[in-house]
Amino acid sequence: MSNPREPSEDLNRIPEKHRETVARAAEQLASRMRQIVKNCFDEREAVDAMIELLGDRVPDRTDLVSVVSAAVATVAATPKRQVPAPVVGRSSSG
Known about the structure:
Blueprint: H1 16-39, H2 43-54, H3 70-77
Helix pairs in contact: 1-2
């Protein structure tokens, strides 16, 4: 399997006895990144978490991060509900 980030690198070169360990580490990394993206509502917290996870490769710049407020995230995570249209009685203007 080719590495999408580095096409010349073949992940099948990993010895078979180590593939399970590498796959588990990759799953843990992906899981932690999803947690950071989903649960950080503060730019500083998000940057600090990514630096802790990936090291100094991540720039210490909160201006590169946009997060949604907890209220917006809650609304976005709530499933849509279909409600009937309200009944509006007849009226006349004038």
